Amino acid sequence: MRITVMTADEQILTLDVDPHESVENVKALLEVETQVPLQQQQLLFNGREMSNSEKLSALGVKDEDLVMMVSAAPSGAPANAPAKDLGFNPDGSAVNPAAFQQHIRQDSNLIGQLFQTDPELAQAILGNDLNKIQELLRVRHQQRSELQRQKDEELALLYADPFDVEAQKKIEAAIRQKGIDENWAAALEYNPEGFARVVMLYVDMEVNGVPLKAFVDSGAQSTIISKSCAERCGLLRLLDQRYKGIAHGVGQSEILGRIHVAPIKIGNIFYPCSFLVLDAPNMEFLFGLDMLRKHQCSIDLKDNVLRVGGGEVSVPFLQEKDIPSRFLDEERYAKEASSSGALATGTADRSGSAPKGGQSSGGASGGTSQESEFEAKVSKLVELGFGREAVVQALKLFNGNEEQAAGFLFGGF
């Protein structure tokens, strides 16, 4: 059979041995491999020291099992370190970390118990990093001190004056914290999934023949595509810049325009789709509520699929392992972009024409000062008898210069 041996310096060795081999013979093999004398070897299996005369099979060692090897004190070394070397500093670290480490290693029962109660510290003691041992001892000391402080505070509250206002506040806070701790413990037992990260919903789609992983978000009013993604899909040539502007939402994103229709492939069926194009390099493609409604989609979390066209197509949501790691950081940016995009689309005309003044802004913010100034110029020129569309085009032609636009309109008129 084959067993794995981990040495104190975290070296991994694999040995082919007979199940009825004695521990002493195994140590002899390890002496050849590690140059550690047989007399200085201690072998541990499941936290218990293996004596030289015992057989591997009698100890319960099976194929592919792990055995720990630590170095015992060399012959001639003092069996026990002085008591002062095994003491601790005020911060919890060992006075003599090397002596402390050697003392624990020599006691197979102690290190076995340590593997049960604090495997991290036990592993550090079997290693060669004394700084790590000191750091862990300080952390454990701090944890014990904090626990003791909490117990002392609880004990002090039991004997506090019940008519003291400050004492009553502390008692109230202690009761509230106890309820929170109990609620947390109940959640760990009955609802451990609540502490796991929830992966957002992604599906495989094709946009204009280019495979993409689409972020499905029913909380976003509009379907959004980034400029780089639109360029990769060959759609940037269809960008209608009359819809560009600044969108205000959770964050702020620049709207580069709108692509009115392009084919997307979900499953084996093609569907028409429109997009807002945002200057959002951290968000690639978001399938929003407008297209979810248009194509009668339903998000089925029981079967973990997206159903499209009333159920004619079902595509599975991607598992976390199938989603690129950079996409997992997209969710925050996608939320900002979807919020911005949702507000931006609210200012477009119901008739489907371009937003007035070529600007889109968040409905919640009531429009920007530039839009108000532009609309004031439009109103003045319309009062002179010109059509609104002609006024808008003239102002855009002269970058909002009212006098030049008026001269152009009078000349053309």
List the helices and strands and how they pair.
Layout: E1 2-6, E2 12-16, H1 23-34, E3 41-45, E4 48-49, E5 66-71, H2 97-106, H3 108-117, H4 119-126, H5 130-158, H6 165-190, E6 202-207, E7 210-216, E8 224-226, H7 227-232, E9 245-248, E10 252-266, E11 269-278, E12 285-287, H8 289-294, E13 298-300, E14 305-308, E15 313-316, H9 325-328, H10 330-344, H11 369-383, H12 388-397, H13 402-412
Parallel strand pairs: 1-5, 7-12, 8-11
Antiparallel strand pairs: 1-2, 3-4, 3-5, 6-7, 6-10, 8-12, 9-10, 10-11, 13-14, 14-15
InterPro entries: DDI1_N, Peptidase_aspartic_DDI1-type, Peptidase_aspartic_dom_sf, UBA, UBA-like_sf, Ubiquitin-like_dom, Ubiquitin-like_domsf
Domain UBA: 369-412
Protein name: DNA damage-inducible protein 1
Describe this structure in words.
The chain is α+β, with helices and mostly antiparallel strands and 413 residues long. The chain folds into four domains: 2-135, Ubiquitin-like (UB roll) (Roll), CATH 3.10.20; 141-195, no CATH class; 202-358, Acid Proteases (Cathepsin D, subunit A, domain 1, Beta Barrel); 368-412, Orthogonal Bundle (Helicase, Ruva Protein, domain 3), CATH 1.10.8. Helices cover 39% and strands 20% of the residues. The chain has helices spanning 23-34, 97-106, 108-117, 119-126, 130-158, 165-190, 227-232, 289-294, 325-328, 330-344, 369-383, 388-397, 402-412; strands spanning 2-6, 12-16, 41-45, 48-49, 66-71, 202-207, 210-216, 224-226, 245-248, 252-266, 269-278, 285-287, 298-300, 305-308, 313-316. A six-stranded mixed beta barrel has the order 6-7-12-8-11-10. A five-stranded mixed β-sheet has the order 2-1-5-3-4, sandwiched between helices. Strand 13 and strand 14 (305-308) form a beta hairpin. Residues 74-79 and 337-368 have low confidence and may be disordered.
